[in-house]
Amino acid sequence: MSFNKNLINSFVNITSKAAISCFKYLGKNDKNLADKAATDEMRKNLNLLDIDGKVVIGEGELDEAPMLYIGEKLGTGNGPRLDIAVDPLEGTNFAAKNLPGALSVMAVSKKGDLFHAPETYMNKLAVSADVPFDATDLDFDIEKNVKNIADSKKKELNQITICVLDRPRHADIIEKLKKIHVNVKLITDGDVSGALLVTNKKYNVDAYFGIGGGPEGVLAASALDAYNCKFQGRFLFETDEDKKRAKNMGITDLNKKYDLKDIVKGDSIFCATGITKNEHVNGVILNEGKFITETLVTCKNTLINVVKKEVPAT
Ligand code: VTB
Q1: For atom 3 of ligand 1, which residue has the closest CA?
Q2: Is pLDDT above 70 for 20?
């Protein structure tokens, strides 16, 4: 299924409005205020659409009583049956501190085409499109992955850059990469953007490795699909509660390694509007009574674009 332009445009409007709703909370040192504003705005506007939508990745589960919980129905009910993954404010720390990197993100597919991801960590691998699919794997050791990346790009190891979320849990990966003289690009948060750095040579990132949020992994996979990049993920179910939730969601093999095609089955729409500026898009700008937003929007085989919107500030 490919999506019609009007539908794509309505999703761009929604992440754009959610991003604008955070604007007044930027730098206020309150992650929750900005997150709530983005979530409420996204939910309100999704419910106005003529779609029969359901949240497959959201802000939590029904028993936690959030808005945009997994399983929540969205839209008027009159229209295409869609699965929707949302991260109304990806990078809450960035927004709270008014630092670069906050995004409002959404991915949409035909019903059944997007993986229902539990709220757990995921070990992730994203690799640029010029590396053969079999050259990298979550089950290879770090050294083998980077050596294969370097060989296929005809580069030396010291010309390779790997993006990693800066967390103590990644000390081992970082150490191994340094030892073999691979460059490491550390990010403090926002691994959707981090994974998307492999999409274009201008970012000078060859691959993204490490453990981050599972939902963010699925969202990144939707965009990486449009760029023909590789993505692989394995959920980490640590607690009994995590395992129980996974089973309830129909996951039987808790150790399964998911390739992009297992996560995003058909086509999907990915929209990410900048709240604050990042490598991919500008942040929200208020100028002469108008908000200006930029949204990265992709659809496999049909669209990769940055869309600018102007919305009167009322
Ligand atoms: C990432 C990143 C998010 O959380 O998934 C990360 O994309 C998960 O790791 O922006 P931690 O629990 O260690 O933070 C964020 O950084 C924040 O939600």
Answers
A1: 190
A2: yes
pTM recorded for the entire structure: 0.95
Q: Are 102 and 275 in contact (CB under 8 A)?
A: yes
CATH code of residue 63: 3.30.540.10
Domain interval for residue 201: 121-263
Query: What is the distance between the alpha carbons of residues 309 and 111, in angstroms, rounded to a whole number?
Result: 28
Find the mean pLDDT for residues 130-143: 97
**Rounded Cα distance, 30 and 151, in Å:** 46
> Do 173 and 296 fall within a single domain?
no
Residues 126, 240, single domain; the answer is yes
Q: How far apart are CA 85 and CA 3, in angstroms?
A: 16
Look at residue 201 and tell me whether its pLDDT is greater than 90: yes
For the chain, the residue count is: 314
- Take atom 8 of ligand 1 and give the residue whose Cα is closest: 212
Residues 215-222 have a mean pLDDT of 96
Full DSSP string of 60-71: S-GGG--SS-TT
C-beta of residue 105 within 8 angstroms of C-beta of residue 271: yes
Ligand 1, closest atom to CA 192?
7
**CATH code at position 211:** 3.40.190.90
Q: What Cα–Cα distance (Å) separates residue 89 from each residue in 51, 136, 189, 308?
A: 23, 31, 12, 19
- Give 118's pLDDT tier (boundaries 50, 70, 90): confident
